[in-house]
Amino acid sequence: MNTSLSLSPVILSRSNTSTCSPEPQHMSLAVILCLVYVLGLLLNGFSLWVFTCRIHKWNSGVLLLFNLALSDAIITPLTPLMAAYFAMGNWIFGKFACQLKIAVLSVHFNGSILFLTLISIHRYVTVVHFNRSSLMKRKSFVKKLCAGIWCFLIMNSIIYGWLLPVTTEDNHRQCLTIHQTKLTNAYFTINFVLFVFWCILPLSVSVFCYGRLASSVSRINIHSIKGQTVKAKSMRMIGICLVIFGLCFLPLNVVRTIGVVVKKYYPEKCRLMLRLQTAYYVCYILAGINCCLDPLIYFFGSHNFIKAFRRSLRTITMRRNVEKKSDSESLTQSVNGNVIYTVSQSI
What we know:
Its main location: membrane. The chain has 347 residues and is mostly helical.
């Protein structure tokens, strides 16, 4: 639901009163948005294939990674609708499509943040407290936990879809935008709930877990090849996770929070809203890059995923070599056949 407070473009309109009216965004933003999410779909689609078809024995860590990939991939089918909405500034897809958009966005962003946080907790428990028993190490518990999280995410998304209906502003139908004047108070309240519980709290937990993990990994014996490999991969994973939180989610929440404050207390400052709009869409695209960065976590965070990935590459390479060899043999047989036929005709 982190994208739920979309800041549609605005212009300064003055005719005895000061109002901010929706205006279409530049087409390049919609194109970049589609490219980012299509790339994310390809990467996460391949990751889901590796998880489901190439990894036969799952542990608790793989379960969390699979659910993260699933939450990243579900947003892609709605990306063309969002891109069209950004370009037109007018929602033309109906009430149900708007509610579906709200629900999917809520599940996508909240799910990504929640599973990233759980992955950080899981890594902290398995590495820092490797010799202690923990529920996060039990596959059966993590499976139930993930099922409960999906139920919570779905119910949460339905509530948001009901609270934030389509409205008409200046002859433009608006869906999930800050220009819905009737919903200003609702957006203001929801934003701060999201900012505290879906940004600050998960970020704090992740920073704590990865801080302790980095401290623990720094003490690994790097004189052995295995120690060097483990330390390098662990540090890369820590860096990627913190970059995802710091680059993808934090700016989006900060800019959106400023936007709802300006909308509530300074609605006449349209030029400021226009600048915030530009900043927000940049942050929106950065948030989408999360889908492209998460597959790196699968690679650095799961030994089973790495082995399955390498097996897949070997299988693909072998198939291509067999096909090339078969094509080469067919070509040779064809050439030899033509030569024999030509010689026999000459005789």
